[in-house]
Specification:
The chain is built from 3 helices and no strands. The protein has 108 residues and is mainly α. Helix 1 runs parallel beside helix 3. The longest helix is centred in the C-terminal third of the chain and has 37 residues. The protein starts with a helix and ends with a helix.
């Protein structure tokens, strides 16, 4: 994989993870917690793919292979950070929805 393909892979996987996380949030909002957790598992797998690509670059650089720091690389890192933050926050929201639905059922 050349340098631009590596960067685009990070962006693609991070973007997929972010989208899946927001799909999970919508499912949780609708009361489909099982679907929400499934989407979150898919989001986590996409983030793992992005991190694996990133880690490969880091290992190569640590071994002496130098990469140019480009705006595209910074953009990829930004996407990865945003996707990770979205995943973390949405996991919390899903848990809140789950607790709200449990509390609603117990008061009915």
């Amino acid at each position: 994989m050349d340098y631009e393909q590596i960067i685009l892979a990070i962006i693609a996987h991070a973007g997929n993870a972010r989208s899946l996380s927001f799909e999970a949030l919508q499912l949780a909002k609708e009361g489909n917690l099982q679907g929400a957790y499934q989407k979150m598992d898919e989001a986590k797998a996409e983030l793992l793919n992005a991190h694996n690509v990133q880690s490969d670059v880091l290992h190569k650089e640590a071994a002496g292979e130098k990469y140019e720091i480009s705006l595209l690389l910074i953009h990829a890192q930004d996407h990865l950070m945003a996707a990770t933050l979205a995943k973390d926050l949405i996991e919390e929201f899903i848990e809140l929805y789950e607790n709200a639905f449990k509390n609603k059922k117990s008061t009915e």
